[in-house]
Design a protein that fits this description.
Layout lengths: L1 H9 L6 H31 L2 H19 L5 E4 L18 H4 L10 E7 L4 E8 L8 E8 L1 E2 L5 E2 L4 E3 L1
């Protein structure tokens, strides 16, 4: 009995090396699964800026058309280079002054708006390279004028992701 008591008191408390290695292996597997999913979600969140900005540009284009009977052309804003870093919007660029649209804060994408189809519709494009791999994602927003029976205009939206 005394021998058993000495063994128990001489035993060290803690985890064995095998137990620690199993925990490390499990954590490594979980990290290998979680990190790529997290990176994908970060890229989607960065590109998500484009849709609300394009909707605002489209609404401003329709308002401009209603007031001036012509679509406005806005050059690439904020311009090159595009990438994952935020850039300041340039509200004084040609076309954007007339349009009067300003995003909330800085942007990662660059935006262009111009008329198409003999002035029958306008298209706003957002070019985004949110992962700096020199491969831009393009988000497009279409606005059209269609004469209604009441003599007004109808605008519809189609957002495409390329």
């Amino acid at each position: 009995m005394g021998h058993l008591r000495r063994m128990k008191s001489g035993m060290k408390k803690g985890f064995s090396m095998v137990e620690l290695m199993i925990v490390v292996a499990i954590l490594s597997i979980l990290a290998a699964i979680a990190v790529p999913n997290f990176q994908t979600m970060v890229l989607k969140a960065r590109k998500a800026e484009a849709t609300p900005n394009l909707r605002g540009i489209g609404d401003a284009s329709v308002a401009y058309y209603a007031a001036n009977s012509a679509w406005v052309t806005g050059a690439s804003n904020p311009g090159s280079p595009i990438g994952k870093n935020l850039q300041a919007w340039k509200p004084t660029m040609a076309g954007w002054v007339d349009l009067g649209y300003r995003p909330d804060g800085m942007v990662r994408c660059t935006y262009v708006v111009k008329p198409f189809g003999s002035d029958s519709y306008a298209r706003a494009d957002a070019f985004c390279d949110v992962d700096d791999n020199n491969d831009s994602a393009i988000v497009r927003y279409y606005t059209s004028r269609v004469t209604t029976g009441a003599g007004g205009y109808f605008s519809y939206v189609n957002v495409d992701n390329y």
